[in-house]
Amino acid sequence: MIVVIDTSSLLSLVRYYLPFDKKGVLFEVIKSKVSSGEIILLDAVYEESKFVGQKIILQKLDFLTDKGFLKENKVITKTDELIPLAPTRFLNMVKNQFVANPFQLKKLNESEFEVQKNRFMESADAKLIMYCQHLIKDNPEEEIYLVTEETPSANDLKLFKKIPAICGILGIPVITLPQLLEKYPEVDLGFS
Fold this sequence. Notes:
This protein has 11 helices and 5 strands. The chain has helices at residues 7-17, 25-36, 43-49, 56-60, 67-73, 87-96, 102-106, 110-121, 124-138, 163-170, 177-182, and strands spanning 2-5, 39-42, 76-77, 144-147, 174-175. The protein has a 5-stranded parallel sheet with strand order 3-2-1-4-5. The radius of gyration is 17 Å and the shape is globular. The mean pLDDT is 93.
C-alpha cells in the first residue's frame, strides 16, 4: 500500500492523534512508513506544512526537519516537473468539471481564469491529484490512496472543487487519516 498524504491529514495527525500517543508507537509507525516510501510527502505539501498551524507539523514530526533523515530516505518527493497524465484532457477538465462554482467562473474573464487555473495547477491539491494519477498508472497492482481530511462539498468559496470531489471524477481512491490508521495493524492507541 502506498499513500500520498495531504497537509490537512498531517495537521490532524499532530493535533488530534499524537497527543494520545504516550508510548510513541504511532509516531514511530508514521516515521517508518515515511522513510520506507509507503507514505509519500510531496514537496508542495512539505512547503505548506511550514506555514500551517504555527509550524506544528514540523515541530511534532521533527524527523521532517532532520536533514540527514530527509536526505538518507529521500523523503520529499519533487513535483516541479510534474504534469498531468493527459495534459490537454486534464486542463479541459479543470475548466469544465473541476470548477466548484459556475457562477463564480462566469464573473471571470479569460485572463483572470487563466491566472486562477495556473494557481490551481501549482497548488499542493493539484500536485497531489496528478501525482496519484501517475502512481496508479505506474503501479496497477498496488493499493494507492490519497489521504486527506477534506470533504467533497464546496464550503469555502474557492473556484475549484475540493480534493475528494476531483478524485471522484478521476477515479482516485481517497481515505481519511482514521481510515489510514485502521489499515496499520501495528497502530494501537489503546482506545479499543
